[in-house]
């Protein structure tokens, strides 16, 4: 019921093991079969690898990556790889993830837009959003989604509980902003 055309924007929350990733993968498959170019992102490298393997044979219209790998590839593609390597060597992890990646990604997007080389996606699916739910990162993702968060098609999966506390990066104001775009909201509670 959640993956239908009457719900172009979806916020789904649930604890570990409630099926968020399973729904994200199935949504990517269905949307790609419908001809959509899909970007499926997550935070964790292990989950990213699992999602890549699960979707490897599905459809070339699905791009699976971690958020920061996607940012890094885009930054390198635009020719700003040395700046990113410098930030990795000289900054703290928090500075790298919350400031350097978003700043360099936005710079890269501007450069790629000027060359008409910035990839655009019909659908953005983000799993583990609680780990990247902050203004700078979500503003970056807005740049590659056709219509942006306000008018584009997206599915956001997050754990507002224990998982959210691990990195403490979830900004409730960003979640409220996403809700303001008319997202259908669902809560998964069973493991």
Question: Could you walk me through the main structural features you see in this protein, from its secondary elements to its overall organization?
Answer:
The protein has 191 residues and is α/β, with parallel strands linked by helices. It is built from nine helices and six strands. The protein has helices at 20-33, 45-55, 67-77, 81-90, 93-114, 135-142, 148-151, 162-167, 172-179, and strands at 9-14, 38-42, 62-66, 123-126, 153-158, 184-188. It has a six-stranded parallel sheet with strand order 3-2-4-5-1-6. The longest helix has 22 residues, at 93-114. The radius of gyration is 16 Å and the shape is globular.
Q: What letter string, H or E per element, gives the SSE order? A: EHEHEHHHEHHEHHE
Helix content: 40-55%
Query: Can you give the mean pLDDT?
Result: 88
Strand content: 15-25%
Q: Widest sheet: strand order? A: 3-2-4-5-1-6
Largest sheet: 6 strands, parallel
For the terminal residues, how far apart are their CA atoms?
Answer: 19 Å
Number of helices: 9
Shape: globular
Low-confidence stretches: none
Question: Helix/strand-derived class?
Answer: alpha/beta
Report the C-alpha radius of gyration, rounded. Answer: 16 Å
User: Count of DSSP E strands?
Assistant: 6
Brief summary:
This protein has 191 residues and is of the alpha/beta class.
What is the secondary structure topology, with strand pairs?
Layout (H helix, E strand, L loop, with lengths): L8 E6 L5 H14 L4 E5 L2 H11 L6 E5 H11 L3 H10 L2 H22 L8 E4 L8 H8 L5 H4 L1 E6 L3 H6 L4 H8 L4 E5 L3
Helix pairs in contact: 3-5, 4-5, 5-6
